[in-house]
Design brief:
- With 104 residues, the protein is an all-alpha fold.
Length: 104
């Protein structure tokens, strides 16, 4: 799967969330971008196996994160073009404060 494919799946997941599709569908969609099998050296020790798996997972996870960032930037830019009274920065700061003050 290419980086673009992963970013497209990320955007599809966000659209699905906003459209009210089930969380199971979103999890399945995002799960498609992570490998379901890993290649590890036959004679590897635990540390080498861990590093190999981490390297194989980090690419898709990085693409997912990039997809979320790209989608957020586009939505935030479109929102701010409407000249809102509250900026995206203020919204994010309020969210951070709410998370910091609410119990888990």
């Amino acid at each position: 799967m290419t980086d673009d494919d992963t970013r497209l799946k990320t955007i599809a997941a966000l659209v699905g969330l906003r459209g009210g599709v089930g969380a199971d569908y979103i999890s399945e969609l995002l799960g498609e971008v992570t490998p379901d099998r890993f290649t590890v050296p036959v004679e590897a020790d635990a540390a080498e196996i861990s590093l190999s798996v981490l390297q194989q997972v980090s690419g898709p996870v990085n693409s997912l994160i990039n997809g979320f960032i790209l989608a957020f930037e586009v939505v935030a830019d479109a929102y701010e073009e409407t000249h809102p009274e509250t900026s995206t920065e203020e919204i994010l700061q309020a969210l951070a404060l709410r998370i910091a003050t609410e119990p888990d």
